[in-house]
Amino acid sequence: MGKPGTSERPTLTSDAGFLLARAGGKAIRSLNRALEPYRLRSRHYTVLMAVSERGGLSQRELGELLGIDPSAVVALIDDLSAAGFVRRDPHPEDRRTRLVMLTDAGRDAFTQATELAARMEDDLLAPLTPEERGTLVDLLRRITR
């Protein structure tokens, strides 16, 4: 399907879904390469980001927030726990729920990873002006809401 109201067929240079997937794949591959020294992947990084930003979250809340299957969240938290970056604390009101919390080592790793991610994002978005970058982020927020 081409542009709305036209009979154009999509192309690899005009299909928004393909271009978004391609840009996302490029960003994830670059971030994964940047995070290799920390033995982290982009999904680990987003979990650390969410826990850093929101404080203690249950695994269910993390899955909903990040759009990740619950079983994948468990594996990610297991990886981060084994690395000493997060811990599972009891929920103050629900004995069955554990809250995922950053450890001091997790905070340090997240700070360093954030610096790498910022450099990677600067490289990825280098073709855009600062105004275009802001517009892109605004548009992506609207799409992902």
TrEMBL record:
InterPro entries: HTH_MarR-typ, MarR/SlyA-like, WH-like_DNA-bd_sf, WH_DNA-bd_sf. It comes from Amycolatopsis pigmentata. Residues 13-145 form the HTH marR-type domain. SUPFAM superfamilies: Winged helix' DNA-binding domain. It comes from the Bacteria. This is MarR family winged helix-turn-helix transcriptional regulator. It holds the Pfam family MarR_2.
